[in-house]
Every structure is written in structure tokens, then in C-alpha cells.
Amino acid sequence: MWEGLTLCPYQRVGRRMLRRYLCLVCLFLIIQAASGCKEVAIPQVHLNEEFSLAAGERAFLVDDNMELRFQRVTEDSRCPKNVTCVWAGRVSCEVEVSRRGSSSRVVLTEPGTSEGYSRQRYGEYELAFHVTPYPEAGKEISKDAYRLHLIITKFPESVTGVIGSVLASPFSYEGQEITVIGYYRGWDLLHEAEAGPPDTRSDWVIRDSTGAIYVSANSSAKVPQILRPDSPECVDVILRVEGIIHVTSAGQPYLKAKSIELVS
Q1: 182 and 158 Cβ atoms separated by less than 8 Å
Q2: Sequence-separated (6 or more) residues with CB below 8 Å from residue 201
Q3: Taking the domains of the chain in order of start, what are their residue ranges?
Q4: What predicted TM-score, i.e. pTM, was given to this entire model?
């Protein structure tokens, strides 16, 4: 019935316009899809510089080709402002660290009511961190509101790695003389010793790349007077301490210093 019929000119024009329209739509969809596949640029940061991350955000440490991703807050039991609590509580953050083709999970825990930055060792690095905002009574903090503030430093090559071995096997080191080059931490201001002072109430802490240990305040060698054991401003001073390892009846090792020198 319809054989031999030809399309009217306006019908041919309509089909051409429809094909052009469909092509434009396809082109638009392809562009949109391509733009959606673009990776968001990761902020670049440097050693010894402060930066902050919201949950899910990443940063790239240019100096050492390391990527950090703030995964989430796993716990927040900090005592709210202006509230009296039996326990100060704590806040813990899960961070994924990727370097040299491998990834590891690090949990950073900050005590409640702490002032300034908490610190935690990760391999040859020290992570100084602080979590905001701080809880207030009657106010809930949403997951998106948390920010993890970080400063990453690298232990100097001069810092020793002996304290970890002493802590792991204290009695095998008892009576031995050792040399520790590490950070002065005063009266355990950063809560790294994980125990109370073993010899006197004025014992102070030194930290190397593997752990922290008390130095007896009854040592023959004394801390330089410029260092105040209650001052957070002194915790990054590096000391060279030579002394003898002593061990309490409970198995806690500590150092009686024979000499103490400022390194930096």
C-alpha cells in the first residue's frame, strides 16, 4: 500500500533534526559522565606543618610519599565542658596510612580534657594530633562535624631506639648502662610512660623512637635548669642521657642518670 511513496521534504528535515538532537543528547551525557569520573585533587601537606581533615578526607605527605585518610571517629567519651565527671574519657580516630604500596590502620586516642596536642608514634614518625570540636553538655556532635588536626614529624636519625627493648625485657637490662637520645617529656606530660613514677614523685620521662621510660629524680645527674617538668613547651627538647637501668619489684624499669646533655 505504501510502496513507492516518498517522504515529504518537511518529513526528511524532521528526521534530520531528530538525529542531530539525539547526537547532542548523547554528547552531553558522555561529557557529564567523564566529568563525574575525575578524581578530586588530594591536598598536599608537609612535615612539621599543621593540617586538618574531616571524616573521609585524605591528605598526601609530599616529603615522604605518604597518604593519610581520616576514616572515622570510633569513640568519643570525653567529659563535656563545665561538667564534673569521674573519668575524663577519650576520643579515638581511625586513620588509614598508605605508603610504598601498603596500607595500615592506625587508631589515634586523645584523653579527655587534655590541653594541646596528644602524640603517638607510627614507625619512624611521630603524629601530634587534636580532635575538635570538644563536647558540650546537651549537644550532640554529628559525624561530619569532627575534624582531626595533625602535625607529622620524623624522628631525627640521632634519636635512639633502645627503650622499647628495655620495656620488653626489663630484667635482662637490670644493672646495665645504656645511652638514650630522645625527647624530654617532663612529668609524663604526654601520657606516654603508661605507669606512675617508680622512684620518686618528681621522676621525669624521656622518649626515644621506640618508647618512653622514667628517669629518677634522685639521679646523680640533673636535668638542665632551663627545662621545666611541668611545661609543655619543653617536650620537644632532645637530651642525651647515660645511666644505669633499675627495675622495681613490680617489673617497671627506670633509669638512674650519670650524665645528661642537651642535644637540641
Answers
A1: no
A2: 217
A3: 44-154, 163-262
A4: 0.62
